[in-house]
Each structure stands twice: as structure tokens, then as C-alpha cells.
């Protein structure tokens, strides 16, 4: 049984991305690395063969990444936006925020930690803004303290992410 602390909350899109990465690593990269090892062996004595050492190191790093992705997939809990209650901000919702005193609004999708990509409008539920708005409702104001200072936001809209 998986412990809750090991659970990784992910969106369906994030889960599919992990599956695609695992397929690529096991079906494409493993073959490429095996070819590198085979080619390096052809250079002769492997005890003083830097190409062979590099290829074996590449294989080690690849297998480590495969293990990490497999662990994350095993521990993933997919959050279905359709099952999300859009009354309050949660994983799988899209939240529109406005800095209090300004007109400009920004919309973010709240996602799992490893899916975070602020440039694409995806904020982790464990980020400063994500933590501040979690479980909050439209009309509520939250203050987020970051290294650049404190900013007060108003939650303008909450909806299930598509």
C-alpha cells in the first residue's frame, strides 16, 4: 500500500506525459545506449576505453531515470477535472486572479508539483500562489509573500480545467 506522502497528484495530461517519456526511454533510448556500448566495445580493450566508460555511464543514468519515472507512475493519483468541485480552488481547477488595485487578470491552472510550468500558466499547488489560493473561493483575497515582497490577489473566477 502506498503511503500518502509518496502520492504524487497529477492531471491526466501529466500522467500521459510520464507514460510517453517511459515509452521513449525504454523503446528508443535503451536501444541507442546499447548501440553506443556495442560500438565502444569494438574499439578493443574496455579497461582503457573512455567511449565504453561514457556509454556505460549513459546507461546508468538512463536506467536511473526509467526507475524514477516508473516510481512516479506507480505513485501517481490522477486528478480528474470533471470530478473537481469548482466552488473553490483545487488541483485540476483554473483560477483567475487579479492583483488588488490593478485591472490586469491572470489565469492559471493548478497542477501537481512536477507539472508546474508558470510560463504556460500551470502553477503547482505547492507554489506560494498555489498554496495561498487552495480551497479559497471567488471574491476572497489572499496575500502571497515571495522573495520580491507581498502581493494581494483577489480570486476573480474558478472553473474546472478542461
Keywords:
2 domains, Chitinase A, domain 3, elongated, single chain, 27% strand, Helix Hairpins, alpha/beta
Describe this structure as you would to a colleague.
The chain is α/β, with parallel strands linked by helices and 162 residues long. Helices cover 38% and strands 27% of the residues. A hairpin with a 2-residue loop joins strand 6 and strand 7 (149-160). It contains three helices and seven strands; from the N terminus they run βααββββαββ. The strands form two sheets. It has a five-stranded mixed beta sheet with strand order 5-4-3-7-6. A two-stranded parallel ribbon has the order 1-2. Helix 1 packs antiparallel against helix 2 (50-74). The protein folds into two domains: 4-78, Helix Hairpins (Orthogonal Bundle), CATH 1.10.287; 80-160, Roll (Chitinase A, domain 3), CATH 3.10.50.30.
How much is the average pLDDT? Answer: 86
Give me the number of helical elements: 3
Order of strands across the widest beta sheet? 5-4-3-7-6
Q: Which range best describes the helical content: under 10%, 10-25%, 25-40%, 40-55%, 55-70% or over 70%?
A: 25-40%
* N-to-C order of helices and strands: EHHEEEEHEE
- Largest beta sheet, briefly? 5 strands, mixed
Structural class by secondary-structure content: alpha/beta
- The coarse overall form would be elongated
Instruction: Return Rg in Å.
Output: 22 Å
Q: Using DSSP, what is the number of strands?
A: 7
Approximate strand percentage: 25-35%
Q: What is the total domain count?
A: 2
**Any idea what the CATH superfamily of the largest domain is called?**
Transcription elongation factor, GreA/GreB, C-terminal domain
CATH architecture of the largest domain: Roll
Unreliably modeled segments? none
- How far from one another are the termini? 31 Å
The top-level CATH class of the largest domain is: Alpha Beta
CATH topology type of the largest domain: Chitinase A, domain 3
